[in-house]
TrEMBL record:
The keyword Transcription regulation does not apply. It comes from Leptospira idonii. SUPFAM superfamilies: TPR-like. This is Tetratricopeptide repeat protein. Pfam families: TPR_8 (PF13181). The chain crosses the membrane at residues 50-68. Keywords: Membrane, Transmembrane, Transmembrane helix. The keyword GTP-binding does not apply. InterPro entries: TPR-like_helical_dom_sf, TPR_rpt.
Amino acid sequence: MDKFVKKNLIDKKKEETRIQVDEFADFEGSKSELYFLKFSRFLGRNRKNVFIGICVTVVLLASVIGYFEYADHRFQKETVLLEELQVKARKSNASVDDQIKGLESFLKEQSSGNMELRVWKDLSRLYAEKGDFGKAAEFLEKAGIKIDSPAEVKAYYFYIAGNYRDQQSDSAKALENYKVASTIIEKSAELSNFKAWAFYQTGRLQFQTGDKAGAKLSLEKVLKLENTTATGADSLDEVKLLSSYLLLKIGKS
């Protein structure tokens, strides 16, 4: 038999014997001392594995910390670059087209994705100023998909995107956006005016596209809302009046 194999068998047998015999059977100290002693012996017998485990943990921890520090550094750098771009545009009275070109170039060449939400909002505003409501809606829809919280902001993006789609007479996409906005905001205990307009716009386009039953449900939700703020009662009364008119129209059609 190979001497190395024989040695391994002997070591294995010794280990099995050691496990079977409690080496701490005669220990008379406290339990905490016993646990500490056992732990020390364990470390002594497995110091190689323990050392490797500690090294791996340290490397992983350092990698995670390094990644987040790098991400934060890059975010700060991109924020400065974007603000410099915007200041330059204001000082030079850059046209809407030039501002759009600068922001889109920034997205392609400078942004790692952290600044997308902020740039998309600016691009949406600029395209709306230009009268390109399709592109304006597209960027807000992307922003709405990207953000999850707060829900009210997410709903607002989709609502405004719906308004832009409405202005370009894209009823199908406008309705889709209004539905998303009203669904998100429906469970909120606040913002009754916003909910009312979201339900109304949804119902209006449902009726326009032939979904009378859906329109009726959406418009009835408007009438059930109560004003939750000291201001805004006039706006809520207005949308309730519009909803009542549409409900009468649906009933006669």
